[in-house]
Amino acid sequence: MALARALPLPQPQEVALQQSGVSRAEWRWLYAVAGVILSLTAFPLAIAQLVTPAGTVFSGYVVIARDAFVYQQMWQAGWAGAWLFHPAFTSETLPGVLIYPWYLWSGHLLGFLNGPALYHAARLLAATALLLAIYRLCAELFTPVKLRRWAFVLASLGGGIGLLVPSLDLGPLHVRASEMASPGTSAAELVSMAPHLPAALALMCWAFTVALRSRRLFAPIELVSGVAALVGLELIYPQLALLALLVIAGWAIGRQARGGMMLAVAGAVACAPYFAYTAVLLRTAPQALRVIRPSLDAGDPLGFIVLSHLVCTALILIAVRRGRLRSDLLLPALWIVGMTTFVFVPGLSGIVGRSFMGSSIPFGLCAAPGLLVVVRGVVLRRRRGPVLVAVLAASSLFGIFSLVQPLWIAGLRLDARAEYESVGEAGLLAWLAPQVTPADVVLTRYLDGVFVPAETQARVFVGHPDQTIDAGNKADQATAFFTTLTVEQRIDFLRANGIDYVLTTSPTDRASLAADPHLIDVQEKGPATIFKVRS
Question: pTM for the full model?
Answer without folding.
Answer: 0.93
